[in-house]
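Bug report (template v2)

What were you trying to do?
Predict the complex of my protein with nicotinamide-adenine-dinucleotide.

What happened?
Run completed; filing so the output is reviewed.

Input:
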Amino acid sequence: MGLFSGKVVIVTGSGNGIGRAHALAFAKAGACVVVNDVGGARDGAGKDQRAADAMVDEIKAAGGEAIATHTSVSDLDGADMILWSALNRFRKVDVLVNNAGILRDRALTNMSTAEWDSVIDVHLKGSFLMSRAFARAIKTQGGGGYAIVNTTSVSGLRGNFGQANYAAAKAGIYGLTRVCSIELEKLGCRVNAIAPVALTRMTEDVPRLQQMGIEQLGPQHISPVALWLASDLAKDVNGRVFGVHGPKVFEYRMSQSEGLDAPPGGGEWTPEQLAAELPRFALT
Ligand SMILES: NC(=O)c1ccc[n+]([C@@H]2O[C@H](COP(=O)([O-])OP(=O)(O)OC[C@H]3O[C@@H](n4cnc5c(N)ncnc54)[C@H](O)[C@@H]3O)[C@@H](O)[C@H]2O)c1
């Protein structure tokens, strides 16, 4: 019996990169996998059904169970179609991994509205549409043991030059993870996120990462963390974000300083008092 025997797992963006590694790992662990991928370029341009189809063929050739879906997570009908396909074929869903993503990097002053919208659409709106469709399905199913694993990024959690659209989407996914972890607890569903760093086509132009090589920084290092978070082995883990840089794992947490309850002498703060007291209310 594998860790996911009898479980139905949806992995978005699983025709390439990290999602592909997730789909293979879930299938190997016994899951029925719903492979979703539009098969576009790194910047989201174009479509090719072969990305998802090839993944399904690979899983089946290895003795696993999978179906392919080719619709976009950023499209209401597309997201609903992914859930419908899963329910139609496997009669239930257990796990959702929101992984699909694109990149359209540009410095803020040069970024077009289309570059902003497309990246926010795939990452943030896509994670919302898929999470909502999944939550509605498990609400009907009842029971528990459900999990969502979202994909955020160091860029959204700490910032990175040239990625206003991507970082805003990934920071939004952090907020979505926190809210869903609170709201879906009563449906028996945990919601966590991973912030990976891996060698894929998304990072193919980052020389520092390329130097490290596929063995040290391949997507195969990311999937065990996704499987752990999706499984009952993490039954007490909810609303948390784990960094995975190759074999290194760690946790991110939002910090809050102890602060000062009121300005010296009471009343309202003045800008001058705030400037003077910064070391006493800020994080050290
Ligand atoms: N590679 C890294 O170091 C890194 C770092 C931080 C975060 N991430 C995140 O990990 C996830 C996977 O990235 P990757 O590096 O494997 O990239 P990738 O480009 O190799 O794979 C992304 C996949 O998503 C698919 N996709 C894009 N838009 C889609 C849509 N609208 N609907 C369905 N599928 C769609 C693509 O076709 C592609 O197969 C992304 O969310 C990315 O932002 C990656």
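What did the reviewer find?
The longest strand covers residues 189-197. The chain has a mean pLDDT of 97.
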